[in-house]
Amino acid sequence: xxxxxxxxxxxxxxxxxxxxxxxxxxxxxxxxxxxxxxxxxxxxxxxxxxxxxxxxxxxxxxxxxxxxxxxxxxxxxxxxxxxxxxxxxxxxxxxxxxxxxxxxxxxxxxxxxxxxxxxxxxxxxxxxxxxxxxxxxxxxxxxxxxxxxxxxxxxxxxxxxxxxxxxxxxxxxxxxx
Amino acid sequence: xxxxxxxxxxxxxxxxxxxxxxxxxxxxxxxxxxxxxxxxxxxxxxxxxxxxxxxxxxxxxxxxxxxxxxxxxxxxxxxxxxxxxxxxxxxxxxxxxxxxxxxxxxxxxxxxxxxxxxxxxxxxxxxxxxxxxxxxxxxxxxxxxxxxxxxxxxxxxxxxxxxxxxxxxxxxxxxxx
Amino acid sequence: xxxxxxxxxxxxxxxxxxxxxxxxxxxxxxxxxxxxxxxxxxxxxxxxxxxxxxxxxxxxxxxxxxxxxxxxxxxxxxxxxxxxxxxxxxxxxxxxxxxxxxxxxxxxxxxxxxxxxxxxxxxxxxxxxxxxxxxxxxxxxxxxxxxxxxxxxxxxxxxxxxxxxxxxxxxxxxxxx
Amino acid sequence: xxxxxxxxxxxxxxxxxxxxxxxxxxxxxxxxxxxxxxxxxxxxxxxxxxxxxxxxxxxxxxxxxxxxxxxxxxxxxxxxxxxxxxxxxxxxxxxxxxxxxxxxxxxxxxxxxxxxxxxxxxxxxxxxxxxxxxxxxxxxxxxxxxxxxxxxxxxxxxxxxxxxxxxxxxxxxxxxx
Lengths: 177, 177, 177, 177
Description:
Number of strands of chain A: 7
Structural class of chain A: alpha/beta
Strand order of the largest sheet of chain A: 4-3-2-1-5-6-7
Oligomer: homotetramer
Strand content of chain A: 15-25%
């Protein structure tokens, strides 16, 4: 871990069976993202299946560290979490604890829950990196950015767009200075 | 109150000083919306200033009933709430209690907090009516609707678009059948 | 409603079937408490069965007003709530919203959930009135009061003991001055 | 870490300046507790000052691992937390996330917040070990145990009493079988 500002990175995205569409199409990307993040940062996810599981698997494959911030009583934790936080909150309310606890958020595809997490990160002034080309709300939200980088007129924090894992890492490094 | 399915209606939108732009430009609309809703439904808002205050003022001007679901300890309640719920939660987390407690949500303008409320309503399967032409996220979200009425591929509930208070009332009546 | 400081009163206590022991033994007391409170205050409860239901039934029998602050999605609301708040939180976390939203709390019997509510009220500086003789934690907590009226050394607010509904009303009136 | 059922242990107790009464009188005990727990378990605390800070200092002095579950935005984290969870919730509501996330809870002294945490642990069926002789609610609650070990008639889980750090460790080992 470098002595840098960004220490804890959250990853959000599609939930669901990782071996079914649309997640299986981005499975390699998620594993790679997990590996690269796992070498550099503590990785926080919502602790469940889908993108969360694949990224965490990647993190653990390189000996990294995963925190899962789970809804309700944490029953559906995947097997890759070093620390499981059981929030007692529903899916969306628990997302706010996830974004508050990290320094930056990376978004991969995703349905309504991911959309709420993108906005929650922005509302909590956490930089969001959209991993473009992964579909869902990660691509959809890019269409409504103000000045190409804000989610409202208050311009609370910047939303970044990356087209590869390498670009995600570059942005993380840049915002850590 | 009719014997209808929709009994409790939430109104979300811009917070801030009601006598400054952009809120003052839609002040008359908010008052009228409050009056019409106040004659038919219990009206729930986030209990604070901006659109919340103007709509609630309208509700009370016709003898209607307002519930304010407030963040933190409820210090910033406007003067029009009959019941004040002090949630102890931050601005956004408390929004989930607001949308869970109503049968439908009407959106008027709004910055990031309103965007989260629109998505929160949809995620909780509550019909959302966008009062178009009021700016902010109410208009912006319309651009990314799937099939013109959904907020993700799960098609959890319909998002409606109205261009006047009359149209809002018609939609509410229609979804109450 | 008098122009008094205490406007909203919370009632906490045993949950469970109101027609079984131990609740059935205090059913008349709960109904009477509800009637008397309903003539004077807005009554807030946890919105479910047991003491909550009996008190709310009493409130409604005199045309009073009930707010139910419910766990999860509010599925188990009793039939006497005028306003139902669906908190999305578990049984105990939702209790904090209940005590924050009222000016004073009356405790009737109760198991662990009631104990947490008594302490939650005190931690939030809300006066608690123990209706003694009703069993459970309402009587048990009386044994560990510091100086007969505090729940910790910070002496945040007073805990009162009443042995009848009349005494409860007197105390409420006294602390409203 | 042994392959045992108890992996994550929570420690609750007095907040406040660790170098002032009453905390300074039990400072050595807290450090020792931290050292012994740190060699065996992941240690979760509320992440702030007082007992939390002293125990975490002990944990880190032996190379152990600390998770701090903090209120609000986590501003007041002590310097010994490896993972900081920022819950956005008030002091007491965040305590529920702490107790839900661990396998057992150890209580040391404490005012009202600690009392709520003891009851929260019990309500969530987490075994509680009272470190007796440390004052506050840890000793006070012992006086109202039902059958010497339960906190209500539902007998959800056992409350244990230990008079030394060694005894705490023995109990943890026993309940891990």
